[in-house]
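Protein modeling request. Please complete all fields; requests missing the sequence field cannot be processed.
Requester role: graduate student
Desired output: 3D structure, token encoding
Chains: 1
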Amino acid sequence: ERARGKRERARGKEKSKLKESKRKESKEREQGERARSEHKEREQGERGKERESERKKSEKERGEKARNRRERERARGESENKSEEREQEEREQEEENRRKERKERERGRERKREERERERERGERKRERVE
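Delivered output (131 residues):
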């Protein structure tokens, strides 16, 4: 009886040690995951800042280029009206190109639709012939 009690106590101690080690492992794992996720968030934040600064820099460069172009046009003696007219013409041309592209896409869709319809009719005629 005493020996059995001793064995059970020893087994209980082993179980509690096992539980404790498992608890420590899970705690360490959670800490590692937390550290990794925090590191990832920090890196993403840094990348976001870098992208934002790149975007601002490119916007600034575009603005400077446009300003320089306007200054060159003025230096060549072009009136402000002419450059505005040219910009308006460019916008109108871009809009016209977009309209043409839209029409072309629509024509392509229509052609595909007609082709599918012809294929379907061919299939129906073929089935009728088979019947």
